[in-house]
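Kindly go through the following sequence and its backbone structure tokens. Advise at your convenience whether the structure tokens fit the sequence:

___
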Amino acid sequence: MKCHVAFVESAMEENGTVTRTIRIDRHVDDLLRRLSGQERVSVNHLVNRSLRKFVEWDNFADKFGVISMPTAMVLRMMESLSDEQARELGSWVGSNLVKEFLTFWFKEVSVHNVLTEYPRLTALYGRAFEYEERQEEGRWIIVLKHSAGRKWSVFYGALLRALFEDVARRDATVEETENQVVARFALPPEIVVSVP
């Protein structure tokens, strides 16, 4: 059974919101209301968050061939690799798969997409790591924080090195610890990256 639910919010030019009326299943509406109470946010917030994820990630991920797997299974698969195999896999992903990802999502492989869009989307929706970036003394610093262990740090370190060499064409210092990877490099003068 369908339920007509209007998510009404005034159209405000300064924040770019629009009013749109949609029809959803009554069961979905019940679940949204229950979840909004649990998370202490509005139903509108949940719907907006879900739609943003759909347009920024799910729509492309399905077409790109991204699959969902239990974290325990992915961690177990990485643990079965040697450090060298994890490094080789990271290099391959950084040199090949990320380029395909960027071309598919953004229609171009650019330094901007490598440095901001790819890690932001992967951290936000792929949930593989927490992502931080900052400028310090003329250098750009990227931090990938995870809790998956040393082999994942080896993998991410190799991935970042490959990205910087093959795509950004920048030398980077990459440091790996048990659950974190930090990359430091100089930005090309023509690239301006703003931290929100």
In short: Residues 71-185 form one domain. The longest strand covers residues 130-136. Strands lie at 2-7, 20-25, 130-136, 139-145, 172-177, 180-185. Residues 4-13 have pLDDT under 50 and may be disordered.
